[in-house]
Amino acid sequence: QVQVVESGGGLVQPGGSLRLSCAASGDIFRIYAMNWYRQAPGKQRELVAAITSGGSTNYVDSVKGRFTHSRDNAKNTAYLQMNSLKPEDTAVYYCNTEVASYASPLRRYIYWGQGTQVTVSS
Question: Average pLDDT, stretch 42-68?
């Protein structure tokens, strides 16, 4: 089994910064993609940033130039550096990871964290 835990959310003023972390642990043979989603009240969950095992990244247009997604493969951890935050960035941020386990190294499973709240408000 694999556990995914997000941290780093909180309340920040517009223009401020936060750094989210996503740590995966458990039966991990290899982690492939690590992705950040967010869901605002009354809205569908959307993909914000994605990173491959090789470090290639993609972002939704609304965060390009403000958010930076990175990962530390040795620590099985991904980070989302969020700068110039706006009220519309307010949401619960979720991390998901694509993992192959030692128990089943040829299969990939998606695991989700419980989410961390980000609130941008003055």
Answer: 97
